[in-house]
Design brief:
By secondary structure, the protein is mostly helical. It has one domain (about 5-130). It contains six helices and no strands. The longest helix has 26 residues, at about 55-80. The protein is elongated, with a radius of gyration of 23 Å. The protein binds zinc ion (ZN).
């Protein structure tokens, strides 16, 4: 794997994180909209789900469902990213996506877990070959 391939994999990994952010943004917006624009319907739904004395629990339950949706989306992003072999060490399977790990891998070409080489050729090496 070259440094450029690793950088592309990291860029893709970072782009994947738009999904939990989108779930959070759309979820909180939708929830605020529903609570402010349809308070009677929210209370009616709360009464149906939790009974009349506990109808207000619908708001707490909505936040709980939103939190679960965010966690599920984050877990899905992690699973998708784990399948990209460029993001893991081929020797020890260390997941090389933390900021400190990215700096070490790009600077040294070595894994932060086992210390063995994960970058097989640098772009500078390729440039030198092309120069001759
Ligand atoms: Zn390793």
């Amino acid at each position: 794997m070259t440094v450029d391939e690793y950088r592309q994999a990291i860029a893709r990994y970072r782009r994947l994180h738009i999904w939990p952010i989108a779930v959070f943004g759309l979820g909180t917006s939708g929830l605020l909209y529903a609570v402010t624009m349809y308070p009677a319907e929210m209370t009616k739904l709360g009464t149906a789900l939790f009974g009349a004395p506990n109808a207000d629990w619908i708001r707490t339950a909505s936040l709980f469902v939103l939190a679960i949706a965010m966690l599920a989306t984050s877990a899905a992003v992690h699973c998708v990213a784990k399948r990209d072999r460029r993001l893991s060490c081929s020797h020890c399977n260390e997941f090389l996506v933390r900021e400190a790990a990215i700096l070490v891998v790009i600077a040294t070409g070595n894994c932060t877990g086992c210390g063995r080489q994960v970058i097989t050729s640098t772009n500078e090496d390729d440039a030198e070959v092309e120069d001759f």
